[in-house]
Amino acid sequence: MSVLVYTENWDGKFKKLSYELVSYATALAKELGTSATALSIGNVDETELKSLGNYGASKIISVSDDRLANLVNSAYSKVIAQVAEKEEANVIVFSNNFGGKALAPGVSVKLKAGLVAGVTALPSSIEPFTVKKAVFTGKAFANVVVKSDKKVLSLARNSFGISETDNNAAIEIFTPELSDGDFRTNVKDVTKVMGKVLLMDAEIVVSGGRGMKGPENWGPIEELAELFGGATACSRPVSDEGWRPHTEHTGQTGKIIAPNLYIAAGISGAIQHVAGVSSSKCIVAINKDPDAPIFEVADYGIVGDAMKVLPQMVEAVKELKAEG
Amino acid sequence: MKILVCISNVPDTTTKIRFVDDNKAFDKNGVQWIINPWDELALTRALELKEASGGAIEKISVITVGTKDAEPVMRKALAIGADDGIRVDTEAKDAYYVAMQIAEAIKDGGYDMILAGIESSDYNGSAVGRMIAEFLEIPSVSSVSKIEMEGGNISLKREIDGGTEVMETELPFVAIVQKGIALEPRIPNMRGIMMARKKPLAVVAPADGDALTEFAGFELPEAKAACKMVDEDNVKELVNLLHTEAKVI
């Protein structure tokens, strides 16, 4: 019996989200009276692998195979299922991100393990195994009972946090059994976004809506995001108008994010937009209309013209930074 | 070539979410049901591909797992332009159960391309499409934002964390599609609505098997504390509050 956690890497490096996953798996393992094993697929060096131990993993399994350079749904799922069986894992933990969505359902079917996607907390009960997840895109929560012996959970981002422990975990190399039939998709071309904080990773997100009037007014949004080391986002009408790229659209049908701070400038707060950002720890709303629904979900608000307020905010943040 | 689009019957995205039966069930009272937004975009793209294929794509089918309540949404899919439909007549219990039912219903159907939306807007499971591929043991590509077809060659663009990849795949395959796959969902016209009444919508009995998960109950998010308002001439105070009170900057 053990808890297995799949830790994705990005060009050989783990991210905060990987450590959050290991922290979650470790806490879960403790409740189940067992230990957490981390699984890494791809070329990751020893120092980086060892870092997973700092968040509680008691063993690290590394799979490195040239054919696994890019994500192949079937092959990766097979590797994870093989490791899960070898480790007699009864819970397998993923992130509810791109990789988790591509792999967790495959592992669920292979192991006949009930899947709960977007889990937000440790189980409220072990027998029956019950976990909480957001449903209706953040408008409600459900308590889900997993009836099968084996379970697959994918954790919602920024829902658990990181807890460090000191574990000098051993690294074990695993060689999976794969055949050509597991590689029936192929990556022909890759385009990577370089040098920008990704919206999904950002702890602070500055977002603009129609109230910003036009793409030429995005200067202070970008400046503020840069000051914070954060990312920029926008509402759906803004991306539909082509003012900003579609990758920035946050909301029900765009990206669902949960940063520590979300600043909504000139966004009225339609229910579909709020659904995509309501898990943010703190929401600031700036809008001319005091009745805008965004103020119902915001923690702090300013009734005013975002185009006038934002430059002042930039100055105030600069002052704060200067004070150290 | 044949394309299958998986359809989920979901509450309109503006629905006020409420629960009944001691918070054990979703309150369906007065709810407007729609085609899951991503499934609608998938269907739209399938139709675009068919129209541009010069006859190479002969048929677009739609499938759902649901009771009779799901019929209006299936008729809408036919009105938008799907050629025929299948409804597996059972409650959509969980992702595993739904994917298993779809895989059983279509395994001999000869579909070359199966499209599923990245998630349903009700239970946000993000699993059915990928699970169908696993049950059928066929390749899948996740988070697909573009599908192009040229002379029988299929090219897919998938959105990874921090970039995009252009993919090729063997047939048959499952594409799990997201925003970008089509610009706007197609709206049925009067002719489409008339024709949809005559299009075949097969009702098939569910296969044996059970769900692996079940809902024990629901809860609504805790009411948020009132928004703290700051004067527009005092932006500095807001920044101070974020620093000292909320401790987020």
Describe the SSE topology.
The complex is a heterodimer of chains A (324) and B (249).
Chain A: E1 2-6, H1 16-32, E2 36-41, H2 46-51, E3 59-63, H3 73-86, E4 89-95, H4 98-111, E5 114-119, E6 129-135, E7 140-146, E8 151-155, E9 170-173, E10 185-192, E11 204-208, H5 219-228, E12 231-234, H6 236-240, E13 261-265, H7 271-277, E14 282-287, H8 294-297, E15 300-303, H9 306-323
Parallel strand pairs in A: 1-2, 1-4, 2-3, 3-9, 4-8, 5-8, 11-12, 11-13, 13-14, 14-15
Antiparallel strand pairs in A: 6-7
Helix pairs in contact in A: 3-4, 5-9
Chain B: E1 2-6, E2 9-11, E3 19-20, E4 25-26, E5 33-35, H1 37-52, E6 59-65, H2 71-80, E7 84-88, H3 95-106, E8 113-117, H4 128-136, E9 140-150, E10 153-160, E11 163-169, E12 173-177, H5 190-196, E13 201-204, E14 213-219, E15 228-230, H6 235-244
Helix pairs in contact in B: 2-5, 3-4
Give your account of this protein's structure.
- The complex is a heterodimer of chains A (324) and B (249).
- By secondary structure, chain A is an alpha/beta fold.
- Chain A has nine helices and 15 strands.
- A seven-stranded parallel sheet of chain A has the order 5-8-4-1-2-3-9. In chain A, strands 12-11-13-14-15 form a five-stranded parallel sheet. A two-stranded antiparallel ribbon of chain A has the order 6-7.
- In chain A, helix 8 links the parallel strand 14 and strand 15.
- In chain A, helix 3 crosses helix 4.
- Chain A is elongated, with a radius of gyration of 21 Å.
- The N and C termini of chain A lie far apart (49 Å).
- The model of chain A has no long low-confidence stretch (mean pLDDT 96).
- By secondary structure, chain B is of the alpha/beta class.
- Chain B has one domain: 3-Layer(aba) Sandwich (Rossmann fold), CATH 3.40.50.620.
- Chain B contains six helices and 15 strands.
- Chain B has a nine-stranded mixed sheet, with helices on both faces.
- In chain B, a hairpin with a 2-residue loop joins strand 9 and strand 10.
- In chain B, helix 2 packs across helix 5 and helix 3 packs across helix 4.
- The longest helix of chain B is centred in the N-terminal third of the chain and has 16 residues.
- The radius of gyration of chain B is 21 Å and the shape is globular.
- The model of chain B has no long low-confidence stretch (mean pLDDT 96).
- Classes of the chains: A alpha/beta (324), B alpha/beta (249).
- At the A-B interface, helix 3, helix 4, strand 5, strand 6 and strand 7 of A face helix 3, helix 4, strand 9, strand 10 and strand 11 of B.
